[in-house]
Each structure stands twice: as C-alpha cells, then as structure tokens.
Design a protein that fits this description.
The protein has 25 helices and 27 strands. It has about 750 residues and is of the alpha/beta class. Among the domains are: about 160 residues, 3-Layer(aba) Sandwich (Rossmann fold); about 200 residues, Dimethylsulfoxide Reductase, domain 2, CATH 3.40.228.10; about 130 residues, Barwin-like endoglucanases. A 7-stranded mixed β-sheet has the order 5-4-15-14-13-6-7, covered by helices on one side. Strands 21-23-22-27-20-24 form a 6-stranded mixed β-sheet. Helix 5 packs across helix 19, helix 6 runs parallel beside helix 19 and helix 7 packs parallel to helix 15. The two termini are about 35 Å apart. Bound molecules: ligand MGD and iron/sulfur cluster. Ligand MGD binds next to helix 7 and strand 14.
Length: about 750
C-alpha cells in the first residue's frame, strides 16, 4: 500500500445508462402527481410499492418507492402519514431516484496501485473479498501497532450507525461527523446551556401555530427542510409576521414584513439590543421569567448599556427598527419563535450567539408554549443484543478535550490529530470515511491534505466517485438508500413515530449495503458476537416486534405513530417544570460558563471586516441540492447545474461586471478558485459581501455532469475561527476579491 504522498485520483467509473425521471419546481411533481388521480392510477399500475425514508438530506422524510417489473425504481412519493413530509417530498427527495440511476456511480471495489512509472497512482478493480480482507488486515495492524483508538471513523448519514457499531466493537470511539462541528454544534451548546435541552433534528418549533417567526440567517425555503417549509407557508397564510435578519434578501426575507439587512458578523449586538428593549420597556414575559428564570437581574444589568442606538453603529440597523421589531415579538409572545437556525458555524462566537437567541426566547416565554417551541418526544428502538463494547483508552472526547462543551466528535480535531506532532497523546493513523465528502465539507483544505499525506491507510465508502474517494487506498461502493435496509428511523416530533427503509430494488452493479460491509469486516476481525445475524432484516424484524409492531405491518404502512408518554406538549398555565440545567431553571446567567472561564452572558465582539477591494464570502443552500452530494444527480442537475456569484449592483459598477460574465475569485490568502463562476447582479445582497450556493465546483472528472460546474466555496475557506466552547469551525471570516482574468492560466498551460 502506498504510504507516501497520496495524490488525488479521478476514479474511473464504467458507463451505463440509467433511469431518468425529470422533475420541475418544488412540490410540482409530487403535488401535480398526487392531485391527478388518473395519472397516479395509470403510472402506479403494475408497480410495486416499497417503504423507505429519504437520504437526500437529513430530514429523513418517509416515502414510497415504486418499482417496475424490471427492478427499476420509477418514482418516489411522500408517505401521507409521515409528519416529516405529510405526503409531499421536496424536489430533491423526488429526484432521489437519480441517485439510484446515476450512471457515474461507483460500481466495484477499487484498490489504489502504483502506476507504471512508479509515481502515478491509479486504481484497479478488486473483488469484495480482497478489498474487505485488506481493510480488516489494516484495522488489525493499527490495533496491534498503536491501539484501536488510532483508527478513526469519519461519517455522515445512515452508513454511520452500522460502522459506529463496528468501531465500538473493535475498540475505537474516535468518531466524528461534520453535522456537528461544521454545522449544528453551537446551537446545541447555546440552547443546552440555557434550557438544558438540545434542539436536535427536526427542530421542535411550533411554526404552524406561531404568530411571529424570527429568522436569523436561517433561510428556510432555500434550506428545504420539508415539514418546516410547509409549516412556514401555513403560518404565512395564517397571517404570522416574519422578521428576517440576513445580509441577503433570502426567499424567506422576501416573505417578511421586516427584513433587517444586518452588517455580517454583528448579530450578537442586535440580539443584546432586542433583550434591552424587552427588559427596559418592560414587555418581556414577567410571570414566565419569574417562575422559570435564573439570573434575570444579572441579565438586566448586563444589557443596560446595549441600547438600540449602541447597536445601530455596529449592525447598521436603525434604532426605531430594532425597537419596532422587539415590540412585534413581545406582542406575539409567547407564540413567537426566534429560530435557532441549523448551519450556525459563522464567526467563532457562535455558541454565545445561539445562547443569546435562546435567552431572547426565554424572555419572550416561548419555550414550551404553543406557537413557540414544543416538548418533543421519540420512541426508543431497542438494541439488538450483543456483548458489551470494550472501553477504549481514549476517543473523541479526549481528542477534543480543549473544548469543554463538545458533546460529539469534532471532525476538524480528528483530522488535526492525524498530522504527526499535532496531538501526540491521541495520534490517528488510519481512517474509514463513509457518506461524507470531507475535502469539500471541512474548511482548511491544506490541513486535510496534510493529514491525508500522513495517514497510513484510508478506506472510503461512498456511492459516487467524489473528491474524497480519490484520496482513498481502498474504495468500497455502497448501494444507494433505495437498495438497502437501514436502521429504523425513530423521529423526535410532537408525536413520536417510526419509519422503515427497505430495498426497493436489487443493488445495481456490485454495490453493497454498509450493514453488510460492517458485518463482513466484523467477522474478519473476530467480532462475530456483535454481528449475530445473517441479514439486517432479522435485526429490524426483532426490533419491531419488541416495539409492538412487525416487519409485515411496517412493510404495509411505512410509518407508525405512537402515543406520547412524556406529558403535555406545552406547559400549562403556572405548571411547575424543572429544566435540565444545574439550577433547574432557564439560565439567563450561566454559573457553569463563569466557572469554566467563559462569559456567563453573551457579549458582542468585533470581527474582522474585509479589506479594500475584498468582499465577505457568504454562502448557503440551493433548494434543489444538498451539500455536494446531489450536483451530479441527473434529475437535480437538470434543475440547477451551477452556482452563481451574487454581487450588489454597486459592486458590479465598481468592478465593471455584467450578468453572466465569468469571473474567478482569490481569497485573502491568495488561494484561487479552480473554475470560473458566473456573475448574478442583484440588489438582494449587501455591497460588502458576495454570495454563492455551497456544494458546486466538483473537480472529479468522473462526475460527468457536475465536473467544473460553478465554484466551491470550501476551497476558498482557508481561515477559520474555532468556537472556544465546543470546537465548531466558523467559516464566514473569509474574504474574496473578484478577478476577470483566469489566474490558473499559467498552471493549465
Ligand atoms: P456532502 O458534501 O453532500 O455532505 O457534509 P457532507 O456530509 O460531507 O457529501 C456527502 C457524501 O456522501 C458524498 O460523497 C456522497 O456521494 C456520499 N453519499 C451520499 N449518500 C450516501 C450513502 O447512502 N452511502 C454512502 N456511503 N455515501 C453516500 C455536510 C456538512 O457540510 C454539513 S451537515 C454542513 S451544515 C456544512 N455545510 C457547509 C457549507 O454550507 N459550506 C461549506 N463550505 N462547508 C460546509 N460544510 C458542512
Ligand atoms: Fe428528502 Fe427533501 Fe425530505 Fe430532505 S426534505 S429528506 S431531501 S424529501
């Protein structure tokens, strides 16, 4: 195996035609389809219906997959009984068939080999037996040489849980996923410290009943989380007020009565000023705060100086607008939601910003109230019996020990620990990567490439030839979510429910499900007792039986709801309630933060602003895509094939830019974009920032559609500020200048 510098290889994939299902705009396929009974009857005839839940994003909507007699999946329709989708999939979910049909898919296991000249690496096809034996031998070798802890799992989505079981049985807890430190982690810390409860997914926001929804950089509607979007559109129909705080006129902001086009990086100042207004105009929920609050007097003193006039100079939002919006929230309270957001790693003080959001909700009395946040509940899926896991000597907690509030593995810290000298006590020597395209996901590519260079072994399990697969020593092709069993989806909602995923078609090519891969590796490592079944179907059947249902029933219904057991969904008038914080109350002042040397209440800190000629690089979601995983999907590529660079008309004038002109970007550290990106001149973005959708700019040629389409925001993120509480890597402190000439010309020639 090649242990020296690993170069990125554009994995070859054998071409094969696939099924294509064309989609139009959001909701149109499923809605039109559902409303046209004749069409449904005609097309559904002779099709087999199989329950699944979607893996195109992590909202996990339950759906029916329809398969024809030739084992081809023809379409996907939302399960009517599922609270995540209410029978309607989003365009990405409908287009999930394209993941199955994509002719660029990985088709066989691949092993990295030296080329003829001894330098150029390449891949050769391998049998499953050979590839799995190689990985198992490597895992055994790492265990012998360094201990199992030095083997890390970097994962995301459903494949993760099967491999997590393998890793824990093998003796390693060095596990992380980007959904924590590159996404939601800070909000879980901020809300956890204040209410003693994580937000989790789906967010327990009672949007359908709210009178006022405040979105702070949260672009619901572009961030297409299905039932949340449906509820927001119901709330708008019911006359709810939307307040959107965003430097960009997002789709949500375009529906808002109040769009506060805040100067980027100054949100904490606005949140403090809002708290000032609520407290000093005496319009906060006094009864609620008195009964459930802790440290209100300290907060009152703390925000005394943070007047709207003070915040104006920082945020550029006029004092009367700050006062007016605070009064709107108070008038709607407690049916008001200051939304926690989802991808919240922005400026490095993100846990504190999220705490300010939580505290504002506390002052408005919205936690546990109708139209605010509900008390969520889920059912426990029993564990299939296996021996206890061995206790590792160290794991993700020790790797991230600098960050006292980290509650999951920090991807970037595991990557750092893979570079010799960076974490001597907890050295990582090999990775298994599954379901995450790390190089396009974690900022600071130089750090990742250094880690990759240093590692003794990398195995990547993916469905597609992505950027990360090109760095692997062994590549394993997983079959798509439509071709496999996975764990039972137990959803946290107003009402608990479960959903079944089972194969709608036989896996294409030689691809295999990860439950099978994990079991084979486990058997080869002598861990049979942890995998005491022949087929994962047996595990699911056993679990469903314990839960009072059966595989047969679930195959027919797909989703099953259970009655609530944890008590009322909202607080009743004056109901005693103990929050899971140290004080048992909503902590406006946090003694725990103070004790650990952090600010017990959020403060505003100044962040660097762009130098002359540079613009802040802002980014977000396309409604047609999920991160980098869907760009090559034939159905979704048809809907959106490239991202564009949003620039304000003033910037266009200064830089001499026109709509659809191709430009390149250079960041503050001299890093250039690889591909050109087209300009979109629009008033919808402030003049101090530019904006693009995340996920585009693939540089793997084997992605026959996505290669070279648009640009990658991640490549331009060479600087991060790390959240000192939980280790999140803030990505919004990068600045770019716009180039009209290709800076890569010399390199290419
Ligand atoms: P993707 O880029 O979609 O998301 O980061 P990732 O989870 O890495 O990569 C997913 C990978 O999983 C792809 O290689 C895809 O082919 C593969 N895959 C898809 N389905 C399956 C499957 O069933 N089995 C297997 N084995 N593989 C599969 C997401 C992360 O990115 C998150 S959660 C957030 S919020 C952040 N967002 C973000 C951003 O907005 N901008 C920038 N620059 N970086 C970001 N990083 C974070
Ligand atoms: Fe799938 Fe869309 Fe639901 Fe996400 S929101 S799980 S992509 S249908």
């Amino acid at each position: 195996m090649n242990n020296s510098r690993r170069t990125f290889i554009k994995i070859s994939a054998m071409g094969m035609g696939g099924v294509a299902l064309s989609t139009t705009a959001f909701g149109s396929i499923s809605n039109e389809f559902l409303s046209d009974d004749n069409l449904l009857a005609k097309t559904a005839k002779n099709l087999k219906r199989t329950p699944t839940y979607c893996e195109v994003c992590f909202w996990k909507c339950a759906a029916w997959a329809y398969t024809d007699e030739n084992n081809n999946i023809k379409k996907l329709i939302g399960n009517e009984n599922d609270p995540h989708c209410n029978g309607r999939l989003c365009p990405r979910g409908t287009g999930g068939v394209g993941m199955y049909a994509d002719e660029d898919r990985l088709k066989t296991p691949l092993i990295r080999v030296k080329g003829k000249n001894g330098e150029d690496d390449t891949y050769r096809k391998a049998s499953w037996e050979e590839a799995l034996t190689l990985i198992a031998n490597k895992m055994a070798e790492v265990k012998d040489k360094y201990g199992p802890e030095s083997m890390a799992l970097l994962k995301h989505g459903s494949p993760g849980s099967h491999l997590e079981h393998l890793f824990k049985a093998y003796g390693s807890d060095s596990i992380a996923e980007p959904a924590y430190a590159q996404c939601r982690g800070p909000r879980e810390t901020g809300f956890g410290l204040t209410f003693g409860s994580w937000i989790g997914s789906p967010e327990p926001t009672d949007i359908r009943d709210t009178k006022c929804l405040v979105l702070i950089g949260s672009h619901i509607g572009e961030n297409m989380h299905n039932s949340q979007v449906q509820e927001m559109s119901d709330a708008i129909d019911n006359g709810a007020t939307i307040i959107a705080v965003d430097p960009r006129l997002s789709t949500a902001a375009s529906k808002a009565q109040h769009w506060l086009a805040i100067k980027p990086s100054t949100d904490i100042a606005l949140l403090l000023a809002w708290m000032h207004v609520l407290i000093y105009e005496d319009i906060y929920d006094k009864e609620y705060v008195k009964q459930y609050g802790f440290g209100f007097d300290e907060l009152k003193e703390h925000v005394k100086e943070y007047t709207p006039e003070w915040a104006y100079g920082i945020t550029t939002i006029k004092p009367e607008e700050i006062r007016k919006t605070a009064r709107v929230m108070a008038a709607s309270a407690p049916s008001v939601i200051v939304h926690p957001g989802r991808h919240v790693v922005w400026y490095g003080d993100d846990s504190q910003r999220e705490r300010a959001i939580a505290m504002l909700n506390g002052l408005l009395g919205s936690w546990g109230r109708r139209g605010g946040f509900y008390f969520k509940e889920k059912v426990k899926v029993p564990k299939f019996p296996h021996p206890p896991y061995p206790k590792p000597k160290w794991g993700w907690e020790e790797i991230g020990e600098k960050y006292p509030y980290a509650e999951m593995g920090i991807t970037s810290e595991l990557i750092k620990a893979s570079i010799p000298g960076e974490n001597e006590e907890h050295p990582i020597k090999a990775w298994i990567v599954a379901g995450t395209n790390l190089v396009n996901t974690v900022p600071q590519r130089e750090m990742i490439e250094k880690a990759i260079d240093s590692l003794e072994f990398i195995a990547v399990i993916d469905t597609m030839p992505m950027e990360i697969t090109g760095y692997a020593d062994v590549v394993l092709p997983e079959c798509t979510y439509l071709e496999r069993y996975d764990g039972i989806r137990s959803a946290t909602n107003r009402e608990p429910s479960i959903a079944l995923r089972m194969p709608a078609a036989k896996p294409k090519y030689e691809s295999k499900p990860v439950w099978w891969i994990a079991k084979q590796l486990g058997e080869k490592l002598g861990l049979h007792d942890y995998f005491n079944y022949n087929d994962f179907e047996e595990v699911i059947a056993w679990q469903l039986k314990q839960m009072g249902t059966s595989l047969e029933e679930m195959k027919k219904i797909g989703v099953k709801k259970f009655p609530r057991k944890s008590g009322p969904i909202f607080l009743e008038e004056g109901q005693p309630y103990e929050f899971a914080t140290d004080s048992g109350k909503i902590e406006f002042y946090s003694p725990d933060l103070a004790e650990k040397g952090f600010d017990p209440m959020p403060k505003y800190t100044d962040h660097k602003q762009p130098d002359q000629g540079f613009y802040r690089l802002n980014y977000g979601r396309s409604p047609m895509h999920t991160f980098s995983r869907t760009i090559n999907n034939p159905n979704l590529f048809d809907l959106k094939s490239e991202n564009k660079l949003w620039v304000n008309p003033k910037v266009a004038r200064v830089e001499g830019l026109k709509n659809d002109q191709e430009v390149w970007l250079e960041n503050q550290d001299g890093i250039h974009s690889t591909f050109p990106i087209k300009v979109r001149v629009t008033e919808r973005i402030r003049w101090d920032s530019v904006y693009m959708y995340h996920g585009f700019g693939h540089n793997n040629k084997k992605l026959s559609r996505a290669f070279g389409m648009g640009e990658s925001d991640t490549k331009l993120m060479t600087r991060v500020v790390v959240d000192p509480l939980m280790g999140g890597t803030a990505m919004r402190g990068n600045f770019v200048r716009i180039l009209t000439e290709n800076p890569n010309k010399d390199i290419e020639s």
